[in-house]
Write a structure and sequence with these properties.
This protein has 395 residues and is α+β, with helices and mostly antiparallel strands. Helix content is 47%, strand content 16%. The protein is built from 15 helices and 10 strands. It has a 7-stranded antiparallel β-sheet with strand order 6-4-3-2-1-5-10. A hairpin with a 6-residue loop joins strand 2 and strand 3.
Length: 395
Amino acid sequence: MKHLEIVFRTIIVLLAACCSALSAFASNDLNTEYYDSVEVSLLTCQPHDEVYSLYGHTAIRWHDSHGKGEDLTFNYGVFNFKAPHFVARFVFGLTDYELGAYPYRLFLQEYRHFGSMVTEQVLNLTNYEKGLLHIALANNLKPENTVYRYNYFYNNCTTKARDILEQCIDGKLEYTDLHNDSVSYRDMVHEMTRNNPWSRFGNDILLGVKADQHTTWRQQEFLPNNLMYDFDRARIYKDGNYRPLVKERRIALPAGVQMRKEGFPLSPLAVNITIMIVGLILFAIEWYRRQAFIVWEALLMVVSGIIGIVLFLMLFSQHPTVSLNLQILFYNPIHWLFIWSVIRGRKTIYWRLVIVMCLIFLAGSLIQSYAEGIWNLALCLLLQSILHIYRIKKQ
């Protein structure tokens, strides 16, 4: 009971602090003297081991060092993971995120817990620009405006922070010395998930043709580190003069020790190679005995059908990069339609259909990158089809 009382009191204190800070922020009048003591920063947080943070995070800091003492973090990445059907809504592009504002110390406390470094870029804004940002953030905090439809590549917590800062610039914002413009969304996802092979594999299953197209530097700013890089090299032009967008860059929170969770011991490639080895051994035995292993064939068809159903459902997703996925040329619900016929040992066109799908699947790989090792499952079914067609010809 004592522990519950401490937790309850802590929550009350935090809520009171948030309400007090937000009330003060919303009530400030727009005079230039107030903004003399305000410092606006872009916060870039390095990734940690949680799935939702493999790509890092971005937020805005509003720090009044002398006036009313507000030190707030504006975070466009607030969501409720326990909301009904959260995962399904996220996959179909129907997730709603919202803007949250709370004391800066609480924001740092979260990333200190995960051991992630936080970099702060103090922006070189005029008092007039700070006033515009003040109005924009206060307007975004209104109940009717705080929620937005989240899209991972096109409208996320990083792009929202960028957009609201850019719209408050008094002058022309120019980006110089931009990063590589020949990478795709898939390339960037691979880079950010290099230490999480199963996350990378899952993304490659879902991402389609559009994820392999080259992106512009603007599109690449969905990643926090890319936006931080571009802000460092941005400048504001007005009345014949230039000023850098970033006045100062500092480490708000040094990197700590990150505790990595133990995942599945085998990588997706190792699992797929194991499946391929098992398939080759069983195929050799089947060929020698001239008899197919029905249970093995049914298992391959069930797994292929499950992947196919997932890809079929992605056709209805609002994420543009998953709606056209050539992996569905082989992995589709068709496999399930023939399971009963195969189990009963009936003659069926399924095995010839597998060969056709494999050939089309091969052609699709020239256009789209497939998930690592995903070929092995298809090859196992291809071997079974060769066995059945050979048996039919012998008969």
